[in-house]
Amino acid sequence: MPREILATSALPYANGRIHLGHIVEHVQSDIWVRAMRMAGHTVHYVCADDAHGTSIMLRAEKEGITPEALIDGVWREHTADLRDFGVAYDHYSSTNGETNREQTYRIWNALVASGHVESRPVKQLFDPERQMFLPDRFIKGECPNCHAKEQYGDACEVCGNTYNPIDLINPYSVVSGAKPVAKESQHFFVKLADFEAMLKEWLEERRAAGGLQSEVVNKLKEWFADGLRSWDVSRDAPYFGFEIPDAPGKYFYVWVDAPIGYFAAFKELCESGTKPGLQATDFERFIRAGSDTEMIHFIGKDIIYFHTLFWPAMLHGANLRMPTAVNVHGFLTVDGAKMSKSRGTFVNARTYLEHLDADWLRYYLASMLGPTLADIDLDLKAFEERVNSHLVGKWVNIASRCAGFVHKLFDGKLANALPAAERVRYAAAACKLQACAALYEARDYAAAMRLIMEVADEANAYVAENAPWTMAKDAARRAELHTVLTLALNYFRLLSLWLAPVVPVTAARAFAFLADTPTRFEAADAPLLGHAIAPFHTLATRIDPKQITAMIEASKESLAATPPSAGTPSPSKASEARQALPSVSPNPVSPSPESRAPSPDFISIDDFARLDLRVGKVIACEAVDGSDKLLRFELDGGELGKRQIFSGIKAAYPQPETLLGRNVVFIANLAPRKMRFGVSAGMILSAGTGGNDLFLLDADPGAQPGASVK
Question: Rounded to the nearest 10 degrees, what angle do helices 445-466 and 478-499 cross at?
């Protein structure tokens, strides 16, 4: 029976660009939605930018703009990148909207009215210079367990232990460098213990129904070992988010209103009148408890807890429907390793699109994605070979080998009928591929791609066996040739139908060539006969290895990477999310001694003295045409004169004019480097992990241009 489904992807955080790790999830959900629609189901597909939190506030402050201006610009980038990757959301919203505020208050007020909220004082570390409470990841100090230096406020990356940030030895604020003080504040908590029995039952029910992977449910059981503790859902001003009703200066923690963004985006879609058959009243029908509709989430394994414990608890407490399924996927690695900026394998979506076709990556990911939490590796050589062999060599090649003969000898028309043997052959292939519908729904795209390529091999074997290029030389075999060409192109159409959810743009070209507009898998039940096709034009080209090389080079840091600063927090959503974890986290597992980070190698004072560090005043700064990473600086180096330096920090400072007049620190005796944009005579120092997580080192106003740094 046709089903009504609301499908969502996890909300990208509005503090950075879309990269290939994000694309894994959005492509996975988009393929699923397209396949379910082609199977005859009604699917509403929404997403939004997650636009709140401390990191958003601090980045906007650094750039000298309002948080609203920051997230608006990021929203435009995100929507363009996802659109150009073929991810076709019905509506893409932002959590910083009035609809989301309204739904957040609705759920919050219901939780309060039902007695699921409590308030109590919490002792936190407070930055006296910035006058703000510090999230755990914005505090560093010495681990109280193993005494490792420079550890974050929630967990030690050396010994693996978690702790209260107040227990850190010699803590300091990574925002200002000041020593924080312990200060008490009243916080709000959702009493998760109220929902413990319900959650246990829901998890097992969803596992049995196929709505949660067993690995997910087994992992979540750890959280119930000592009973669920209350979840801290408030943050103190200054904070960018929604203020809690009747609690001035208190704001909802970002993970409260983020998942509610799914509802808000869908409500906006219902009220927009842009989707045929969807009305404003459908919103309440979908979200009410006991609804006969479905709600399917696609997420990464790093945010399981929020979607399978906190989110269902909030929904149940507000008497609203809970998710039908939460589909969890693994992380993306490149060439067997974590994505790396220095190796050029940390690739932004736009950088990929500037060099390679989106459908190529969509197909490769589909060939790797299964229904488990296993990580997906983008093996760049295998990527090239798979696209060239499967998409071009096996699929598109069928049409390119046969179309010319149809136009040259048969006026561009397929045969009116097929002999019995060919009808049986086509029916067998169509029957085999019907299994792909269930594989798509189960998210076993890799198995579906294997099955499709098996049929592609059968089709190519049929063409090779009959050799139409030889038949065409014999006028007496015209009828036989017409049969072979007609079946071959119906094989091509059959493959195009089942590949359409994966490679939508290339499939659209294929159907334009076939002069056919199928929208359902059931169109494969009967072959296309007596039908005129269009002239053949190239549908897809092979990947040139030089294209991959160019993408990697464009993704590398343009200048030597600056070592990460101990005082710079990661601004990612995942980092901020970790604030909530200690309150309900199971016992951590300490890493083995072999996994501990090695001690740094020491240098002598003579080694340090070899670096000529100077203060430079920025007298010109501009983006570099032809580069999405570089800014061109002109510095006043005092006695050293003017210096031109290229720095790969454009993502962190998208408005370079704001840097004019700043004092920066640069290495003056670094060998000049000739780049295609000009000569770079030095290196400007910054702190951070790269991308938009970079902060220029500053000098007090009294430091003069050219002054030595000692």
Answer: 170
As given in the structure block, the two tokens for residue 273 are 């009148």
Task: Indicate the DSSP class of residue 218.
Answer: H
Cα 522–Cα 525–Cα 529 angle in degrees, nearest 5: 120
Tokens 């060439």 belong to which residue?
335
Q: What is the mean pLDDT of residues 7-34?
A: 96
Residue closest to 367 by CA, chosen among 386, 348, 349, 388: 386
- Could you tell me the two tokens for 694? 């970079």
Q: Which residue has the tokens 């003295």?
A: 609
What is the separation of C-alpha 500 from the centre of its chain, rounded to a whole number of angstroms?
22
Residue 296: closest CA among 617, 613, 35: 35
Angstrom distance (rounded) from CA 268 to CA 91: 8
| DSSP assignment of 422-488 | HHHHHHHHHHHHTHHHHHHHTT-HHHHHHHHHHHHHHHHHHHHHH-HHHHTT-GGGHHHHHHHHHHH
CA distances from 208 to 201, 211, 443, 444 (A): 11, 8, 17, 18
Task: Compute the distance between CA of residue 498 and CA of residue 433 in angstroms, rounded to an integer.
Answer: 8
CA dist., res. 519 & res. 644, Å (int): 56
Q: Which of 230, 248, 134 is closest to 183 using CA atoms?
A: 134
**Type of residue found at 50:** D
Among left, alpha and beta (phi > 0; psi -120 to 50; other), residue 600 is: beta
For helices 358-368 and 445-466, the axis angle rounded to 10 degrees is 110
Distance CA 621, CA 107 (A): 47
Asked if the model's pLDDT at residue 246 lies above 80, the reply is yes
Candidate CATH numbers 1.10.730.10, 3.30.70.890, 3.40.50.2300, 3.40.1160.10; the one for domain 358-525: 1.10.730.10
Q: Can you read off the two tokens belonging to residue 13? A: 């955080």
Strand partners for 348: 19
Domain 600-696 has CATH 1.20.1440.230: no
Q: Which two tokens stand for residue 377?
A: 């590796």
User: Domain residue spans in the chain?
Assistant: 4-114+202-212+253-337, 358-525, 600-696
How many angstroms separate the CA atoms of 431 and 455, rounded? 11
Query: Over the stretch 174-198, which tens digit does the pLDDT of each residue have?
Result: 999 999 999 999 999 999 999 999 9
Q: What is the number of other CB atoms lying within 10 angstroms of the CB of residue 437?
A: 18
CATH of domain 4-114+202-212+253-337: 3.40.50.620
Q: Within 10 A of 517 (CB to CB), how many other CB atoms are there?
A: 9
First to last CA, the chain: 74
pLDDT score recorded for residue 560: 35
pTM of the shown model: 0.78
Distances (CA, A) of 149 to 180, 384, 598: 17, 44, 13
